[in-house]
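Supplementary Methods. Inverse-folding protocol.

Structures were first reduced to a discrete structure-token string of length 185. This string, shown here, constituted the complete conditioning input.
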């Protein structure tokens, strides 16, 4: 049970409009969204920074950054949602999913472009910085616009982890388990 109860339908007109825009037809709004909607102001700000629109990255690039960031932050809730909805769509194999959740990334498991994305996630998580060597590799694969989006994406999903973990939001019924993660008691 979440520390703050989600709002229940009927939702306000503004909140319902956002749910209608971001949720697939026939899929109820995620527990994270309905919990944040307890404060419409927070929910509006959350959505404004969510990067849910199509940006300059491929779906696979986005998902690698999201999944790695969720794993590093022990965010089983958001990990479960993204693995369930997107892993197959972006070609993540069971071994790739396990590798994303591992304490350390084996660069040999990934293309050079993917490995530097994951290295960036690890560096930002550990020190809120991107070391020069990692930066140089990033710039060989990604434009300035893409790098800005990558950093924003990693930061946003760290914020998602703060909400999901801090509020102890229960996993969605369809969510995939985060390998090696023991839910909080």
């Amino acid at each position: 049970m979440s520390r703050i109860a989600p709002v229940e339908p009927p939702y306000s007109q503004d909140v319902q409009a956002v749910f209608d825009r971001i949720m697939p037809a026939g899929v109820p709004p995620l527990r994270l969204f309905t919990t944040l909607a307890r404060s419409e102001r927070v929910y509006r700000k959350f959505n404004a920074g969510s990067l849910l629109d199509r940006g300059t990255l491929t779906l696979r690039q986005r998902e690698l950054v999201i999944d790695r960031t969720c794993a590093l932050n022990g965010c089983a809730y958001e990990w479960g949602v993204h693995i369930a909805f997107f892993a197959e769509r972006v070609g993540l194999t069971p071994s790739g999913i396990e590798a994303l959740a591992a304490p350390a990334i084996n660069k040999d498991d990934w293309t050079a472009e993917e490995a530097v994305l994951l290295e960036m996630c690890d560096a930002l998580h550990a020190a809120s910085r991107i070391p020069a060597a990692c930066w140089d590799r990033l710039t060989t694969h990604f434009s300035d616009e893409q790098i800005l989006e990558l950093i924003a994406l990693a930061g946003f999903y760290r914020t998602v982890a703060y909400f999901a973990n801090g509020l102890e939001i229960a996993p969605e019924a369809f969510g995939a388990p985060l390998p090696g993660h023991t839910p909080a008691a």
